[in-house]
Amino acid sequence: MQTATSSDELEGERMLMCVRDCGRKLQLPDTIICAAMLFHHRLASAALSAGLDSSVVAATCLTLAAKTQDYCLESRDVVNVTFYYFHSQTPLPLPEEKLYVDLFDSLSDCELLLLRMLDFELSVPSPHKDMLHYVYALHQAHLSGKHKVSLARMASLGQACWTLITDSFHTTLHQQHSPRVAALGLVNLAAALIGLALPEAKSGGAWWTAFDPTVTLEQMEAVAASMLDLYERDEMPHMLQPWLLEQRPPVLPQPQTALLSTAETQAAVDAGKSA
Prior knowledge:
Elements: H1 7-25, H2 30-49, H3 54-68, H4 75-86, H5 97-117, H6 128-144, H7 151-168, H8 173-176, H9 179-194, E1 200-201, H10 217-231, E2 258-259, H11 262-274
Parallel strand pairs: 1-2
Helix pairs in contact: 1-2, 1-3, 1-4, 2-3, 3-4, 3-5, 4-5, 6-7, 6-9, 6-11, 7-9, 9-10
């Protein structure tokens, strides 16, 4: 079912795409791009009401996200890329030194303003590491089970999970759920979309209870619903992943083997960290 989108939501989505595209042009890691998108979520309404320049806000979000992860990001690069995103006819680098100086000053001022808007709270919940640990543990469970799953198949699961996690920052999912719940829900959805059966826990419960027995089916369904709503939006057609839309609603195949217990899962994760 497709939902109507307000002009403010469309502007916010356009800005999120700007942050994402500029981050990729700057060859930033996905974790930094996602952090920048989360910052934009936190201050989008305040930034719009304050009339801040879109390119400066995008540059500031990327700069703050890079600083939180001790990543060296040159101010000249981020100013050039974000300015060019909205003024594609302007040659790069910026031809006027005064224009660059003005943009750089605006970036510095906007950074201080946004820090105050964020109450200097720069912690970013990241589901990426959790997701990688879950996929690794699931692969170990499949290797020890009766029905083997190829490494290529598990790689497809990992790729689908990574795509979903990156796209999930276009939603407010990470403001509603913890990183662990978000990661489990996205792994569950990715497995459904590629038709991969996940093993059940040795306790007889759903597979995710081996990692966190407090996570409920309702939470998993809420995560999936947020993502499916995102992919149904006509306003952002370039975001759609056709292979993700082939199965709707997603239906998980029956489990084929038992998942590692919580203790065994932690041992597998620790082994993966030390590998």
